[in-house]
Amino acid sequence: MKTLDSRTALALLAGCLASAQVGKVPPALAAIREQLGVGLIHAGWIATAINAAAAMLGVIVGLALARLGAERGLLAGLLLMGTGSALGAAAPDGMTLIASRACEGAGFVLVVVAAPSLLAAAAADDPARRRRLLTLWSCYMPTGMGLMMAVAPLLLQRYGWRGLWTANAVAVAACLLAAVLLHRRLAERAGPRPPPLQMFTRARLTQPAFWLMGVCFGSYAATWFMIATWLPSFAVEHMGYTAEHATWLTAVAVGGNILGNLTTGPLLARGVPRWTLLVGVMVMMGGLGWFVFTAGYDPVLRSVAAVVACSAGGLLPAAVMGGIPLHAHSPADIAIGNGILMQCSNLGTFVGVPAIAALATALGGWDGGRWLIPLLAGVGVAAAWTFRGIERRHDANSLTGSPAATLVEQT
Fold it and tell me: Where does the chain cross the membrane (predicted)?
């Protein structure tokens, strides 16, 4: 059986377009600040406004899609993303741009919760294929974001940041058209009807494995996006880079994340515990992230630290996304687990990026704000260590062939 068909290819493409809406902002922040006259903190909210809706709606969307279907969620998400990008292209001021980014954010969360659920359903009878598809899905953020940051300088130079927003709206609209044309085929290949809404109990929302992996993902996302968002302007202002070279540095760092994503599967297959990967990533990112924003060190060393932190950090999203089907008690719980992951990760991004800017402003520079990074890493380490006991019990149940452990094969 082929790994990709029209259904899975569409889900992966939609995810890359969703992450592109995140990646288009860092290279354009300087132009936006100059044209709209916004400050550093306001610029941070523009960068993370897309994450606000995801931070608030992740669990709700997961519950809704478990009942209504991931295909409909994907269509609605693409529509909202395209509309938000088009409105942003015409935004006259910073507040309007933030509002348009919130619209994009609503579409973003629909896409990133629906797409992995579609992928899991497409390989419901083939666990090996499902693992491959979810590994590919874990690359959606660095792939779309990295490609967008690579082409953004060319579009910005020729058409400005409004042209960049317009180009994204057109790309999303094209994907939406393809999704509409394929919708009947997707509906025909969908799985059985999901359970009624009243069957979603409190127990399904309080599965500790989902929330602990979500906390780890949130701590990781906050640090990763701090680096990815502020590195272009930070490298120009404090490391002596030109704007073009700073954007390319960030694109390399973001694109390198794909290597981490693809490395997770082989490490897990060799018997490395999932919780060990989570702890290792948080410790590494806490130390290197702190170093990146530390004054007085060679810019080349700090550039290498940024690339290594963003690249090796890719082990974590692949580990937690692949862990959702394994710890789900039923097939319907996969969408709920994905919603929890997205809510936690986007909450970390939404709060973390402007928080480090606020600390840097209040404490007189990035040397003060950098201490937020190891603090967040400590939270992630604590959650991963707690998850360790759950993972060991799950592995023990799998070895004994308990009914709870075999439910995963039905997903």
Answer: 40-66, 73-92, 98-122, 134-156, 162-183, 209-227, 247-268, 275-297, 303-326, 347-366, 372-390
What type of residue sits at position 87?
A: L
Q: Which residue has the tokens 């085929």?
A: 185
For 173, the token pair is 């609209």
Residue 1 included in any domain = no
**Residue at token pair 């060319």:** 154
CA-CA distance, 60 to 58, in Å (whole number)?
A: 6
Q: How far apart are CA 48 and CA 199, in angstroms?
A: 34
Residue 83 has a CB neighbour count (10 Å cut-off) of 18
Alpha helix (H) residue ranges in 293-411: 299-312, 315-327, 333-362, 366-369, 372-400, 403-406
Helices (H), 38-69: 40-68
295 within domain boundaries: yes
| Cα(82)–Cα(45) distance, integer angstroms | 20
**Which two structure tokens, joined as six digits, stand for 8?**
């899975």
The answer for residues whose C-beta is within 8 angstroms of residue 236's C-beta and 6 or more apart is 30, 242, 243, 246
Task: Give Cα 62 to chain centroid, integer Å.
Answer: 15
- Number of domains making up the chain: 1
Question: How far, in whole angstroms, is CA 186 from its chain's centroid?
Answer: 25
**197 within domain boundaries:** no
Contact 139, 262 (CB under 8 A): yes
Measured CA angle at 83 (ends 77, 86), to 5 deg? 140
- Print burial letters for 389-401: b (CB count within 10 Å at least 16), e (below 16): ebbeebeeeeeee
- What span, in angstroms and rounded, lies between the C-alpha atoms of 156 and 357? 24
Residues 312, 306: contact at Cβ < 8 Å? no
> Quick one: average pLDDT of 232-255?
81
Distance CA 74, CA 145 (A): 19
Q: Which amino acid would we find at residue 280?
A: G
The residue segments making up the domain with residue 120 are 6-191+203-410
**Distance between CA atoms of residues 10 and 1, nearest Å:** 17
Q: What is the CATH number of the domain that holds 34?
A: 1.20.1250.20
Contact yes or no for 342/325 (Cβ under 8 A): no
Q: What is the pLDDT of residues 69-101, one digit of tens each?
A: 778 888 999 999 999 999 999 988 888 898 899
State pTM to two decimals: 0.76
Q: Is the confidence at residue 395, as pLDDT, over 70?
A: no
